[in-house]
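Sample 3 of the quickstart, ligand biotinyl-5-AMP:
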Amino acid sequence: MGSAKSTHLEILRMLRDSEGSFVSGVTLAEKVGISRPGVWKHINRLKQMGYEIQSRSRRGYMLVAVPDSLAHGEIVPNLNTRWLAHTYHYLTTLGSTNDYALILAAEGAPHGTVVIAEEQTKGRGRLKREWMSCANRGIYLSILLRDLLPIRIAPQTSYIGSLALVKTLREEFGIAASIKWPNDVLINGRKVAGILTETQSDQDFTRFTVVGIGINVNHSRQEMAGPFRYPATSIAIETGFAVKRQKVLLEFIGRFEREYERFLEKGLSALLPEIEQYSEMMGKTITVVYGNREMVGKACGISAEGALLLLRDDGTQEPVWAGDIVRIEGGI
Ligand code: BT5
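Result:
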């Protein structure tokens, strides 16, 4: 007999295998090795988790609908990756997935470990800013990368997150998403996702890197009303319908792995044409704020090291390494 935890998953697997038809309580009980009241208990547990299961006397149970949960059983069996998310930590509520991933990393968690939470109570942006992470609406995830990267290269992994998400939204959902330097993804000029990359290093090389991504998927207009530093939105607001978070997550994870491998093999310069193509600000006059400094210029490229290249009025080109774009010409 399996543990209580795996028994309900075993029952779920059998119901899935006979999709669209009933499985008798006796069959379930025999196959799993528990009593019929035991089956009933596990069915109730699955119902509480959001699975819609029809029960009919003498016919048994039939799975009617699965919840849009990001739990292990809904994601990991459907992954199409070689190494990413094979270790998968799923929590219904958590302070911050980045904090959790940093602890796991220190304890030796493997390369490609993913942490997912349905809700964050202390979700973080850059500079200890807050990331609004209300329950069951968004995707809050952190990816642990263990390759040794020169310290100056590590922040470039943020671009892998934004490029992978923009390609997911464009290719799978037909949404013209764009990248806003340095770490945001926008739809129709509004922020739909943010990325927070954190590293721990020895001397010149990283020991590990954690890329944290927050994606607003099914948030309502009220939830996205803010106040936020930059106008915010969700995929559902922009498309007008709810989107399966499972699909967004699976497609994103697959693309992240591919883009990361391309980055390791060929460097950021291999990704730059697409990053620039999908960029919200290229060729536009923008205002960047860094501390007390405000810079205005035309965004004219991203350097091979990841700096934003700003063309100033006097014709000089300035690389900008950090800051926030607070205004984009023609933007919201
Ligand atoms: C970011 O910072 O955009 C990075 C956000 C990273 C969040 C993920 S969630 C999973 C992982 N675990 C964590 O704890 N964090 C990562 P930044 O560019 O500094 O933007 C932060 C600002 O965005 C805040 O000060 C707000 O004004 C605004 N903001 C907060 N929540 C938002 C949301 N859900 N959507 C859009 N804007 C938001």
